[in-house]
Amino acid sequence: MNIFDRIKKDHDDARELMSKLKETTARAEKTRTELFTKFKNDMWAHHKVEEAVFYSFLRDDTKMSKDSYEALNEHHVANGLLEELDTFPVTSEEWGVKFGALSEIIEHHMDEEEDDFFPEAKKLLSEETAKLMGERFDARKKVVLAAIMPLDEDELKAA
Question: Is this structure's pTM higher than 0.70?
Fold first, then answer.
């Protein structure tokens, strides 16, 4: 899978999780907490790996550097809101409103990446480079997700 398809897959997964989260109410504390934890971890890992594998390469190209820095700043804003949401009880009305705002920011970012950024980046990357980036993205994201997941009870008992 090339880098564009790999990132698009993450975007599709994020859209699905955001949709499910927006359908929840404050009364669905357990479901909302589980979905948000997955969403937050996936987004955090996606952003870090995308920045390291994809944007770091394009940031050095003068044609893409401005767009790359804009995307990095959008990641920063989204990550800040994710962290802020993590401090609010998922049962509060404010949590739902804040998540809606975060969803709009992330949706805009993903649409902009797919519609504007990808076509320009495809002009700069060979098929081989795009494929290698996709493989590295996938491998590194698995490592990042594993590193940020809390230990489960079985792991703690085995220690």
Answer: yes
Q: Which residue has the tokens 């550097």?
A: 65
Distance CA 129, CA 149 (A): 30
Instruction: State how far Cα 153 lies from the chain centre.
Output: 27
The string of DSSP letters for 33-56 reads HHHHHHHHHHHHHHHHHHIIIIIH
CA distances in angstroms from 114 to 8, 17, 34, listed in the order given: 7, 18, 28
CA-to-CA distance for 77 and 80, rounded, in angstroms?
Answer: 5
Tens of pLDDT, residues 5-33: 999 999 999 999 999 999 999 999 999 99
Rounded Cα distance, 149 and 83, in Å: 16
Closest among 133, 125, 81, 130 to 103, alpha carbons compared: 81
**For residues 32 and 21, is the Cβ–Cβ distance under 8 A?**
yes
